[in-house]
Amino acid sequence: MKHMLVGVAxxxxxxxxxxxxxLVLLVHGFPEFxxxxxxxxxxxxxxxxxxxxxxxxxxxxxxxxxxxxxxxMLAQVADNVEVVRGLGADTATIVGHDWGAVIAANxxxxxxxxxxxxxxxSVPYSPRGETRxxxxxxxxxGDEEFYxxxxxxxxxxxxxxxxxxRSWLAGVYCALSGDAPAGSERILTVAPGxxxxxxxxxxxxxxxxxxxxxxxMYVCEFERTGFRGALxxxxxxxxxxxxxxxxxRATIHQPSIFIAGERDARWSAGAIQAQAKTLPGLxxxxxxxxxxxxxxxxxxxxxxxxxxxxxxxx
Length: 314
Fold this sequence. Notes:
Mean pLDDT: 97
Oligomer: single chain
Strand order of the largest sheet: 1-2-4-3-5-6-9-10
Helix content: 25-40%
Radius of gyration: 18 Å
CATH class: Alpha Beta
Number of helices: 15
């Protein structure tokens, strides 16, 4: 695997590249970095593709602007376009997980000339609606606070996470894993005066897809970078809603694929059911039994098979 830095407006994006052939850009989610695609890089290269996993701005070895507004969706899409150009390509397939899936979908929506196909993992495409996102989040929490609302105030979640990065990351990875104890998803709402950590399961035993060495990789990166850049993505949802007003209820027409874990998909069942309308180019949709949120790591072989088959048939 080859590590490089690609220049974009305002800074540089770290890219890990493997293989030769048509370019596939891999975009991670929260709280991860390029390493979440470690199983896919080799598999895609072996299948005849040039796989390139980025550290999204604010993460890993990529640049980290201080200004919250620097993390708006338009900037994320521009980064992806410039990475494709910087790698010497005109077009690419883009595949994203979690927030990376949202960034991938918007990259395909805004720049269909560059991103000719799109793969979405764990988070389905939801077109811009009529409700301001923070208002929707406030309702979603009910009597408690939805985690997306909890992340809005700069410094608040950082104060919870950064004193003990290892236990917080382990708790999140365990709670949203396919083999998590029943009720672990309660971390997605915060009790009045509480924190997400209050409801995390005991992370003394890691899930089978995450070794202690894997966890060390994540911990070392986030202890070095902190979480401000990563969390600033959440703090732009209302700005994105305003920026993307011209694309309200827009559909994505490029060939697409969706893959999610069964335990994760129930939270977005409506958006998944609507994919026939929102993704007219959808080739296939897959819900993997017994799996959770971290799908490309939990079910690496299955995801590799589905992605390479889809990519080969494009």
